[in-house]
Fold this protein.
Amino acid sequence: MTRLVGFSKREPRASHSIEFKRQVAQEYLSGETLHGLAKRHDLTRNLIRVWVRKYEQSAFDDDAQAADMIQEYKARIAALERLVGKQALELEFLKGASVTGTPGFARRKCHQISYELFPRQ
C-alpha cells in the first residue's frame, strides 16, 4: 500500500464539554468573529457554526440531560454489580455450609462475612 507524501494518519477527534460548546456559541453570538474564535480555541469555523445552531435550538440542554442520565445509570449499574457479587458470595458460602448440615450457623456466618466485605453506608 502506498502512502501519499505529506499525509499522515488522522488524529482522534477532540471531545469538548457541553459547557465549553455553550461558551463558544455565546461568545460568537455576543459579537466575536468566527475567525477569531476558531483561531483562539483551535477549532474549525464550521464546527463553531454547528455549535451555535445547536445552542440556538437548545440542543445542548438535551445533551446535558442525557449526560446526567448516563451518570445515573452508571451509578445504578455499579450498585447492582456489587449486589450480584454479594449474592454470589452468599450462594457459594451456603452451598458449602449445606454440606455440613448446619443451616442456622451458615446463615449467620454468611451475613457476618457479607457485612465485613460490603459494609452498609
